[in-house]
Amino acid sequence: MNLVEYLARAAEYLERHAITSPRLNAEVLLANMLGTSRLEIYTQFERQLTTTQADAYRELVVQRGTGRPLQYITGETGFRGLTLEVAEGVFIPRPETEFLVEKALEKAPLVPGTSGAFRVLDLGTGCGCIAVSVASEVESASVVATDCDPKAVELCAANAAKESVGDRVATVTGDVYGPLRATDEFDLIISNPPYIPDGARESLPAEVKDFEPEKALFAGPEGLDVINRIIEGAPGYLAPGGSLVLEVDETHAHAVAETLSVAGWAEVEVFDDLAGKPRVVRAKRVE
Fold first, then answer.
1. Active-site residue, from 22, 93, 193, 278
2. What's residue 110's pLDDT?
């Protein structure tokens, strides 16, 4: 069989196993296995696989058919033009978080401030998608990225080094503000925290609930446990006039905004994502 014939069979198998976008998945798996691009598959479509390659590809397709996330199989994901390493046990970035970064970067200075740096705190960094994106897109950014999982912290540091921003992304292990010093101060606090209610587990796709880390998904009965802790602690680490930007569940976006308003935050805004769902809440600390 040539490459296109392998793709057709793989796509049929994935479709029978209810995998979304089966052809795309088949292409990504084959390109990753061969160390080539998806386009090159078609420019070399008459190429034959060796027995070892065919067996390896078949195994990857079977893994994907079980629901194992594509990103865990390939070990990478795309995020705002970057290719980042991901790994089992660490949350996989979503397009919604790209939108979170977009709304956060609206608060980035066009030129460095008097301190020479735009100080950013990324809480719950995971693979470092937020921290590395901010550092890559804002030359004046100096980012501190925290996570309670040492594996995630190591992954963030590796991705920052790979994208040549390791000198501006500091990683620390700990829960929320726990690893910070009392004197630390930031111009922007940004987070994609766990926000799914505990009781919503069965409503999630199998590839999420069965494969991704629970601590990165669930946050108490209403899904607000971590978000509330972030809001409560933010004034102690946010410079006057600084911004807090949070990714939230569509069902409690406006409740989070109300919490911030009642607490005295200024310029509280809710932003809809590309799907029209309220996904990001942004607020300014009163100067």
1. 193
2. 58
Rg (CA), the chain: 21
**Amino acid present at 209:** K
Q: How many CB atoms lie within 10 A of CB 155?
A: 23
Task: State the catalytic residue, choosing from 32, 118, 192, 278.
Answer: 192
Question: Which residue among 22, 25, 69, 91 is the active-site one?
Answer: 91
pLDDT tens for each residue of 75-85: 999 999 999 99
Alpha carbon 194 to chain centroid, angstroms: 11
Is-catalytic flag, 192?
Answer: yes
How buried is 173 (Cβ within 10 angstroms: 0-12 exposed, 13-18 middle, 19+ buried)?
Answer: middle
CATH number of 88-284: 3.40.50.150
CA distance 55 to 50: 9
Q: Is 193 a catalytic residue?
A: yes
Going 77 to 145 to 271 to 223, the CA torsion angle's sign is positive
Give residue 42's pLDDT band: very low, low, confident or very high (50, 70, 90): confident
Residue 182, classified by CB atoms within 10 Å of its CB into exposed (0-12), middle (13-18) or buried (19+), is exposed
Asked if residue 248 lies in contact with residue 272, where contact means CB atoms within 8 angstroms, the answer is: no
**What is the residue type of 91?**
F
The arrangement of secondary structure in 3-66, i.e. its CATH architecture, is Orthogonal Bundle (1.10)
Stretch (H or E) spanning 240? strand 238-247
**Residue ranges per domain, the chain?**
3-66, 88-284
Residue 59 in contact with residue 32, Cβ under 8 Å?
Answer: no
